[in-house]
Specification:
GO terms for molecular function: GTP binding. The chain is of the alpha/beta class. The protein has 16 helices and 20 strands. A hairpin with a 6-residue loop joins strand 7 and strand 8. Helix 5 crosses helix 9 and helix 14 runs antiparallel to helix 15.
């Protein structure tokens, strides 16, 4: 016999849904209207219903470790929006999972955007789900999630503002796992400081009691979020048993079971009501600052990677200069008598080589400067449209030496590397080289020293530019001590000391100390972060 819901208020939506499992409640999968499987995009979009521009619209971002119950929570939102009651004996789900996706698509579409535009709901809702955060594949995957969010905000159907960032946590936890700390740290580093008041905690698997231990864990981890009048974190409680059948055959008394499921239902729907009331009171936060944060992160990484190569060349030229000076000193008499002689020197040169696929698949390189402008980290911009690469600004590169037009760049599975070779030289050619540059009569040694000074000035400029990127991130990022900053801290500290900038070096050292003291730079993440650091530092 059909239930009231099947015959009445949910008849239309049930007709357009797929039955997952009959029972009490009967479980239905909502049928999406569109499913974006375009592999060139960095996100997947699923739409349920048609957007009504006259309805209030809210956008939320869901973040949480695998197993915390995010998908179940999204299902609770759907049923709350539809006005489903326990006695309706029906339950609607999206039942979407990363594992449902093709392997090819899941490599690029790390986040999923759900558009819930249900005729039966008084509001429209967009949910951005980040199921990849905290994946065991580590830091590289999480960077892709960041760039997926950036791509989404820039797209034609892009999201320009967010009403709430929801951190999903199991209410039974007495401490945040290392992985959770890493997830929340990564997310907070994406947002501007003004977003903290829109970040809330959603505790799942709750028994209705205040999750004191979980709240203590959140405070100890220094998670920034909205606070109530008592300066306590804003949180909402949810149980995860709404779709559990009331007539399962077990040893539990039927009346007791029904009472337990009813209480579970009421707790979760009460939590959802409070969450939606919170959404009404909060102004949305623009993603412009988030875009700025992400842009600065990418430029920081690209600048430091490019800096490494240019510093390496500087040091090789310093070595070449010393060898030349030693040859001039050894042949002082010949120099004085202006006689020719031969000597050897280690000289540097650039060569295009295949990329190590364990580090990256593609790189954006300047063919004029012969430099790697975006490597590693360049993975989604199509080769024929490089003006959209993160290191480009107003169609010109922000990284390479000459700041060349994007049309002078190529994107391939090759990079420039600096190599050395022993080369025989003559004093006659050395003199001619500098005579051609500035005319005769100038000391060769003096000119070489001047050239070295110019290289040192360039090195100082590049190191300070990279430090400026860190400073900018410190100013605009919600989590000012982010893992993105620490990935480059050791390298920058060393170079700042080399160019006699002890105060700036100390500032970065203090940032590292604060991070370690707050216990958010933990062992399980450090291995992954150190791997990235080593990729940048190489032989320096």
């Amino acid at each position: 016999m059909a239930s009231l819901s099947q015959e009445g208020k949910f008849a239309v939506i049930i007709k357009n849904s797929f039955l997952i499992e009959d029972g009490n409640p009967a479980r239905y999968r909502l049928q999406e209207k569109t499913d974006n499987t375009d592999q060139s995009k960095q996100y997947r979009k699923m739409t349920f219903g048609v957007r009504d521009r006259n309805k209030p619209h809210k956008t939320i971002l869901m973040v949480g470790e695998t197993g915390t119950g995010k998908t179940t929570l999204i299902n609770v939102m759907i049923n709350y929006m539809l006005g489903v009651q326990r006695n309706d004996k029906v339950w609607f789900e999206i039942t979407d999972d990363q594992s449902d996706r093709s392997s090819a698509h899941s490599q690029t579409s790390i986040i999923t955007v759900y558009g819930f535009y249900l005729q039966e709901s008084p509001i429209d809702l967009t949910v951005i789900d980040t199921p990849g955060y905290g994946d065991t594949r580590g830091v590289d995957l999480d960077k892709q999630i960041s760039m997926s969010l950036l791509s989404l905000s820039k797209s034609a159907e892009g999201i320009s503002e967010i009403h709430a960032v929801c951190l999903v946590i199991n209410a039974t936890q007495n401490r945040l796992s290392d992985r959770q700390r890493y997830i929340f740290d990564s997310v907070q580093s994406l947002f501007g400081k003004d977003t903290a008041e829109n970040i809330v905690l959603l505790f799942t698997h709750s028994d209705g009691a205040t999750p004191k231990k979980a709240l203590t864990a959140v405070k100890e981890a220094k998670v920034k979020c909205a606070e109530n009048d008592k300066k306590q974190p804003v949180y909402f409680l949810f149980n995860n048993c709404q779709s559990e059948a009331a007539d399962e055959d077990d040893n539990e008394d039927e009346e007791d079971r029904e009472q337990r499921l009813k209480q579970s239902w009421e707790k979760s729907f009460n939590g959802m009501m409070q969450l939606f009331e919170f959404l009404k009171t909060k102004d949305p936060k623009s993603l412009k600052m988030t875009r700025d944060v992400l842009q600065q992160q990418k430029q920081l990484e690209a600048n430091i990677s490019n800096l490494k190569a240019r510093v390496q060349i500087t040091e090789l030229k310093q070595n070449e200069l010393k060898q030349t000076q030693e040859a001039l000193e050894k042949n002082k008499k010949a120099v004085k008598e202006n006689k020719n002689f031969e000597y050897e020197a280690e000289v540097s040169y650039k060569k295009r080589v295949d990329i190590d696929t364990s580090v990256a698949y593609k790189a954006t390189c300047c063919t004029v400067c012969q430099e790697n402008c975006h490597y590693p980290g360049c993975w989604w911009v199509p080769w024929h449209n490089l003006k959209w690469c993160e290191v480009m600004k107003d169609e010109y590169c922000t990284v390479c030496t000459n700041k060349c037009h994007y049309s002078k760049h190529i994107k391939e599975a090759k990079i420039y590397v600096t190599k050395t070779k022993t080369e025989k030289r003559t004093y006659e050619n050395l003199k001619k080289k500098y005579d051609d540059k500035i005319g005769a009569g100038v000391s060769v040694v003096k000119k070489l020293e001047e050239e070295l000074q110019e290289l040192q000035k360039e090195k100082i400029k590049l190191v300070n530019e990279a430090f400026h990127c860190v400073e900018t991130l410190q100013m605009i990022a919600l989590n000012s001590v982010s893992l993105y900053t620490l990935q480059h801290a050791d390298f920058l500290i060393k170079k700042l000391k080399e160019i006699n900038e002890p105060q700036k070096a100390k500032k970065l050292e203090d940032i590292k100390k604060r991070k370690e003291k707050s216990a958010t730079f933990f062992d399980s993440t450090e291995v992954a972060v150190r791997t990235v650091i080593n990729q940048f530092m190489g032989g320096i």
